[in-house]
Design a protein that fits this description.
Largest sheet: 8 strands, mixed, barrel
Structural class: alpha/beta
Bound molecules: ligand C2E, calcium ion
Radius of gyration: 26 Å
Number of helices: 16
Number of strands: 19
Strand order of the largest sheet: 11-12-14-15-16-17-18-19
């Protein structure tokens, strides 16, 4: 990806950038030292030195005036580079790393900036700096920001090195245990860190834009998985695979074209793919998201609203967006027997589903008692460790082929 975080190495004496390039990128020093040079009376003089963990690329403020500077490697250096479009994307998504970087910049220049007149400060876009946090805070956050950037770089490498795999978790019909479909869940098998859970790397992938190739990989892989499952089943047997999408995917005008291409290349019927989105996704850039979801649905795919009940759960989403399935968040399911409010919420969501003719899937079913209770209150589908943890493609095929694997333990109907 042209936009991804870059790791570059610079040899001693090499210019990282010259005056004038500065607006286009920002760097963090990973290893080595760099010098900040300015031109004075026709000659370049070094005004500062930066080491590991330091950010540069910001405007140098010299003699109270913003001036651009040249950056030169004082030793062999390793740098992490942000492009301006990446920064713009991060600012748009209110990325914490950007806020931290701005904090670092502002903290470093606090003394100089506090000497600026108000109009000067406003020109620099740093209007009110009197309440900036102290240097220690910025230091802690600088370490955090560098850690996150490192994670993003590793993600980029991980995508290129095929370090990801998909697991499949069955979604079953509660009344008879039949497998209705599988949810595809991504895993990162990192060479040093071991298995990294999606909750750790998906936010970093979203912040860096790497979610786009990652989602495309998931879709393609899920289509391939579906192909394998279908080969083992009679042609008229219904089965879907659902894929989780991020808001960033659905806000891309190109998403639909990419989606169609993946379906065509893998020969999968669009009707066998379910796209899972959360309420948070629907709240952003609504028009593009609606357009994309509608186009996918017109093609025959279905849409599931994931983690229902945890967001704003506005009823208007259900009429504004093309939703085919409601997935009840596992936090409610898991408190079903201990918390009256959770029980009532689950009840209300299922009733809402019936009212709108939208089937419900209960997530996080861990016991026969959960399955029993959910079936009794009218939930049609379930997913959870009680049926199966997320499993490999091969195990999913075996799971499908096993005749009613949970027949003996199934909840009682009626
Ligand atoms: P999710 O979409 O709500 O996925 C369900 C999560 O609940 C999965 O965690 C699954 O392993 C876990 N789970 C299922 N049944 C049970 C149960 O009975 N008990 C408990 N305690 N947990 C259960 P996982 O795989 O770690 O995924 C976490 C989240 O990461 C997902 O939540 C989803 O938001 C995100 N994610 C996973 N794969 C992808 C992906 O391919 N793309 C995107 N954008 N997000 C993904
Ligand atoms: Ca999901
Ligand atoms: Ca969920």
């Amino acid at each position: 990806m042209s936009d991804s975080l870059l790791r570059i190495s610079v040899r001693q004496g090499e210019k990282v950038f010259s005056q004038g390039d500065i607006a286009d990128c920002a760097y963090i020093v990973e290893r080595g030292r760099i010098g900040v040079l300015v031109e004075r009376d026709g000659a370049e003089i070094q005004i500062a030195e930066r080491g590991p963990g330091d950010l540069f690329g910001e405007m140098a403020i010299i003699d109270g005036m913003p001036r651009s500077a040249s950056i030169v490697a004082l030793e062999d250096c390793m740098l992490l580079k942000f492009t301006s479009s990446q920064l713009a994307h991060r600012i748009e998504t209110a990325d914490p790393v950007v806020r931290l970087l701005l904090d670092v910049i502002l903290t470093r220049f606090r003394d100089t900036l506090s000497g600026l007149s108000k109009p000067q400060a406003e020109t620099l876009g740093v209007g009110n700096i009197s309440d900036r946090r102290d240097g220690r805070f910025a230091d802690d956050h600088r370490i955090e920001a560098v850690a996150q950037m490192r994670l993003e770089r590793e993600l980029d490498v991980g995508i290129k090195n095929h370090e990801f795999e998909l697991k499949y978790q069955p979604i079953v019909e509660l009344r008879n245990g039949e497998v209705a479909g599988f949810e595809a869940l991504i895993r990162w098998r990192h060479r040093e860190r071991g298995l990294v859970p999606p909750m750790v790397f998906i936010p970093a992938a979203e912040a860096s834009g790497l979610i786009v190739p990652l989602s495309a990989w998931c879709l393609r892989q899920a289509c391939r998985g579906l192909h394998e499952f279908r080969r083992k089943l009679p042609a008229d047997r219904k089965l879907f695979v659902s894929v989780n999408l991020s808001g960033i995917d659905l806000q891309r005008p190109d998403f639909f074209a990419d989606y169609k291409r993946i379906l065509a290349e893998t020969g999968v019927n669009p009707g066998d793919i379910k796209l899972e989105v959360t309420e948070g996704v629907l709240m952003k850039d609504t028009n593009q998201v609606i357009e994309t979801l509608k186009a996918c649905r017109d093609l025959g795919s279905t849409i599931a609203l994931d983690d229902f009940g945890t967001g704003f759960s506005s009823m208007s989403y259900l009429s504004m967006f093309p939703i085919d399935t409601l997935k009840i968040d596992r936090s409610f399911v898991q408190a079903l027997h201990t918390d009256r409010a959770s029980h009532n919420i689950v009840n209300a969501i299922i009733a809402l589903g019936w009212g709108l003719d939208i089937p419900t899937v209960a997530e996080g079913i861990e016991s026969v008692a959960d399955a029993d209770a959910l079936l009794a209150i009218g939930c049609a589908y379930g997913q959870g460790y009680y049926f199966s943890k997320p499993i490999s493609e091969q195990d999913a095929v075996a799971y499908l082929q096993a005749a009613r694997p949970f027949a003996q333990q199934l909840p009682k109907v009626g």
